[in-house]
Amino acid sequence: MLRPGYCSPNRKDIGGYLLDDIHEQLTKNMKSELEGKDVELMQDGWSDTNSSLTSTIADACDVWLDLLVHEDLQSYENKVKKRFDQVMTGKHFLANMLHPVYRGEKLSKKHTEIAQEMLLRNLQHSTLTKHNDTKEHKDAVEAHQMRKQLYSVEDTITVSDNEELKVSEADKHLFRTVYFAAKENQPNSSVNKLLELLKASGVQINYQDLTSDTILDIQKSLLFVLDEAMKDELKEAKYYGLILDESTDLSVHKKLVVYIRYVCPSDMKVKSQLVGDIRIPDGTADTLVCEVRKLLQTLGLKTVNLVGLGSDGASVMFGRKGGVGVKLQEDSPMMTHVHCVAHRLALACSDATKAIPYLKNYKNILKNLYTHVNGSGIRTYKLEEMQSVMEEPNLKLKDPINIRWLAMENAVRTVHKCYGSIVTYLQSNEGKNTVGDVIAEGLLREVLHYKFPAFTAILADALQVLGVLSKQLQAESLDLSQFTPMKDSAVGKLNGPKTVNGECMKEFESQISTNGNKVYYKGIQLTHSNEKKQC
């Protein structure tokens, strides 16, 4: 500290790069010390700053129980069992038995007896009586009863001891309400309001002021029932396909989204189910393949029965040597890897635009027009007023997105339908010196150019055809025999304007008028009308 210029590390440095350096050194030392040695892993549970439980000894017990019966470890069964007996104690069995998800279902009779003996040995009668009177215990009992009634949608439920429990209509209404709120992406707080609405409408409702924990517990039970039903269908279907895509959520967490497709044996219809929204540390092929294999193991599916894989055309997916498709084919020789046809159509459209020089400038005009108007509530109101005065549709300008062609279609068609009100609004800002009005004057010069409304009409016709084709390719069940007719029909319609104009182009030409050398569209004089032949 006496050295001139020395600055002691602050809290950020200590918890940042200095801690990282120490961690790396310790990791290196531990690897060299433990290499080739048998080790014992101990773990405990804790809560993070969001009070979310990250790990428990009940989880550890469940993992060990899975290892005992894992098919890949059958040759090491005696060693695994020996290690299991050394590591697992009565505390582990008791934690697993009391866990709300595991509930000791994988424990053997011997393990259950050990857990029960430990519970009775350490439990005082007075403590048990006092706990039974607490609100938390009563809520937990109520939630458990609800969960038991979720294992069937029939009027009766058969439980393990062959006792039949009646499911009341009030319980059914509660479960349906919670399911509806979750399916519609409504917050859990809306469940109580929905129950109040049902009760006011004369529906029998016996529950009110449900806590968030109770609602969450019902959701988990519903999820369990739906997952079990899906797993049963997958076992009967045997063969299945996967759809993979990478994404990033609002928290900037990298995610792997996994859908599974299979033929439901009961009605022979193709089903698509979301089975994974997995956070991943990176987007490498090894990481993605590892997560997919873990997911399939959780679902009880064999990788050899994977017959189809759908993805985008990214190199991490389609790499010839180290892509996800190639790595999965090592375990799934029957698998066919398909590049999503709807995605390929979007890429083809994006590549085709490079051959049209004006289109890049046209997109910039639409983008600037959208930003200028929608960036101000006053400008948006003025445009709506112009639309009412000129009796044009009351439509908001859309953001033109390059890859999402359906969004591009909406942006173009809105400008085509509201061209008159847009120009009139921009003309009302002429002669003013504010920054926004100067931008409006620049936009006005662009949209008055004859090429702009003409190109808008042509593009609106073309994008309508492409939008229909894109939706057809994204159908839930697409018959491959229908692909060629759909493609040929789209190509024929796109080639049609060479001889016969489309709907929007016909409308454009019908509203064109001339007065000498001047050209008018919807009563608005256009500039550079000498470029009419070029369009």
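Second entry:
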Amino acid sequence: MIINGFDRLMMMIIIIFMMMKMLLKWSSSTSSIKLCHCRQLIAGMTNTINRQMTLIINRVQPSRIQYRALQTLATDLQDNISHNNNVILKNSNIQNLQSTNRQSKRKYSNNNSSSSSSSNDEKFITESENKSNFFTKTEILEIYKSTFKATYSGGEVDPKGVFTNNELSLSDIDIYGFDYDYTLACYKESLDYLIYDLGRDVLINKFQYPKDIELLDYIPDFAIRGLHYDIENGFLMKIDTFHQIQLGSVYRGLSPVPSDEIIRLYNGLYIPRQYIRGDNYEENVRMKQLNDLFSVPEMCLLSNVTENFIQNNIPYYPEILYHDVTHAIRSIHPVIHKMLDLQKIPNYLEKNERLPVFLEHLRKNNKKVFLITNSPFHFVDNGMKYMIGDDWRSLFDVIVVQARKPSFFKKESRPFRTFNLGSDRMNWNRVSTLDRDKIYMEGTVSGLLKMTGWNSNRVIYFGDQIYSDLADITLNFGWRTGAIIAELEKEIETHNSPEFKEAVSALQALQQLVDEGNENNVDEAILNQLIQQRDALRFEAKTLFNPQFGSIFRTHHNPTYFSRRLFRYSDIYMSQLTNLLKYSLKHTFLPRRGLLPHETRISQVELIHRGEFPKAS
């Protein structure tokens, strides 16, 4: 990262503040000769700052935000100097600079009278100035776009790559298992609209909710996966890996909840461990986490109805509303399973041409392949016929439908049952072997391993739901796991964008200034101003992903609670299953060696030779 002249100037101002503090401390006990020397030194540095300010302003004209940042620090500096009777400095240059910048501010305001900032914008101010001369926090978002010219040294990230949490060698894997929904089957956004509309109809027709909620449409970019919903208070929020609430990402209905209300209600920002449950199937939970993409339209419906009740002054109890919406959404899954026949399923299901290639690749390399899904057979059959063809079952050694995960991975004893394709019913016969040409229901993972003779250490299972698909099998059975995170591709594309790189580079540069200021006991007023600007940049970086909640993987500076579980329960993760086609079946995925907080970068290695490795002599 490269820090430019403006940043060096800011640090010079900070140093002057430190020297002024020293001067004030010594003024009562230091000899007049030493005191005079200190005054001359500060005066010389101040003149240097004045010259640097002039040079920078001339160089970056007409950067109004830079004017403002420089002028604010200059005002603070001048106020501290002029209010100390023991220090006499010539300040005409700073005063001229302030006058110039006020004119720039007035010109900016006149030219942009049509665009006003939010009434909730925090003011970036100093006590010595008139309020009409302030820039709002929204305007400050532009400061480091035009100020910091930090370079982003990282290369482009492949949106269709495979990413490693734990070392995994595919040469050790003989058995590949898959979930169906959002793993083998990737759905279009139209399915979210369908889930939302059907759930809304249930609220109206079954629970007698007001007819006007029929006018509430699905908002596709409102919620994201990984959020938590406080059932008792009716808040949708984002929590980081340390159970801390991210302020600015807490919503009641469609409206953000003020930070002071959040802090008062939760007695801070920490959510106790007993409130947070990763398993949605547990009873009496305070928080529900959105672990899969099916939850996103559900939370939008809940938020829309909440907002409608608030705006129309309709009394409601958040917990009752939550249970009604949850029941409505659950009740429509059988409806969807019947609706999406072979004629309608192309409207909702993506057809990945590479999926049959990937599965055939596994079969040709003598890998065992199995499917375990909670969905019913005919729903899976329609989808697989559309994506692969009528003979899709020939690609699998074992097929288990209506498995009732996560119970499938938890229960010690529950028999498998055979699904009779002719009668469309379960058979009552005892199942003692799992054959390729049959469809099975229910059962347990223990029974699967016993009847197949598979070694748990040679199995990898792919799914999209961290808890019901991945957690138990990796903790209790030692299976290797792969997470399919469909949103990952869009997140990486945002990460690769020039806007994000610029924002993050500037944010890191600003954080460096804040850190250095803290280490050197810089004046609190300056640090507060820098922190305000940092917060503005954080907000900008967040909204690049999602206007309300930001990235599913990060809060401002920590991984999200969702990320914590993803990294713990998955060895690898990717946006689509077929991303694995880029890699050999003997490939070893190695995690990136990251720096711990107490470590520093020792060396930077550049690969010079990019051709073939030289042959041994």
